[in-house]
Write a structure and sequence with these properties.
Helix 4 (54-74) runs parallel beside helix 7, helix 5 (81-98) packs across helix 6 (100-106) and helix 5 (81-98) runs antiparallel to helix 9. The termini are far apart. The protein contains 10 helices and no strands. The protein is an all-alpha fold. The relative contact order is 0.11. It folds into 2 domains: 10-51, Homeodomain-like (Arc Repressor Mutant, subunit A, Orthogonal Bundle); 54-191, Tetracycline Repressor, domain 2 (Orthogonal Bundle), CATH 1.10.357.10.
Length: 197
């Protein structure tokens, strides 16, 4: 029996970990302050000391997932620009396959409440990483705006294919994803600013 002994109070990381486990196991609609508290063996008020509401809790998880994706995309990339971009496309797809529920959350795909502004701000670093990866392949006359646009288009391609795959609308596979990404970047030799001239 535990009479007389105080149980340690759950901290922020334990709460996030428990919420994440529920979401990955049962889907994000199953994550509530009450369900997380119940799984931890606490009452809901304890969790409100750390998170304002379900949206705050899920937003924090989404922000952490974006940071995890950024780390996985950039770790130990090949020195060759083309090989680095291929590696990033492969890692993006593998991340989505290995973390389907987390991917859905960070992209707001399940209609659960997240703070889109906060998640969007945290994704800006990831946008810069992708733009940096395409910069050497964008052509010598590419402007900063061209590079940013190509990075956005690459991310849109990768995410679009992932979303269609997850919703079972299209049977994409890694080879098709990588080939599409390389076709997009190879076609970047004529930039929007050059075409406007």
């Amino acid at each position: 029996m535990n009479r007389g002994r105080k149980r340690p109070v759950a901290g922020r990381e334990e709460i996030l970990s428990t919420a994440r486990a529920i979401g990955e196991r049962e889907g994000w609609t199953a994550v509530t302050i009450r369900s997380v508290a119940h799984e931890l063996g606490y009452t809901s008020p304890l969790l409100y000391e750390h998170f304002r509401n379900k949206e705050d809790l899920l937003t924090q998880i989404a922000v952490e997932v974006i940071a995890l994706l950024e780390k996985e995309l950039t770790e130990k990339l090949p020195a060759d620009s083309r090989a680095a971009l291929l590696s990033m496309a492969e890692r993006y797809w593998r991340f989505m396959l290995e973390h389907k529920q987390l991917y859905r959350l960070m992209n707001g795909m399940d209609g659960v409440p997240i703070d889109n502004d906060m998640v969007g701000r945290s994704a800006q670093a990831l946008c810069k990483v992708i733009a940096g990866a395409v910069r050497p392949l964008a052509g010598k006359d590419a402007t900063e705006a061209d590079t940013r646009m190509l990075g956005d288009e690459l991310w849109a391609l990768l995410h679009g294919m992932a979303a269609l795959y997850l919703d079972r609308s299209a049977p994409f596979d890694l080879e098709r994803v990588v080939n599409s990404a390389m076709r997009l970047v190879s076609g970047a030799a004529i930039t929007p600013s050059q075409a406007a001239r």
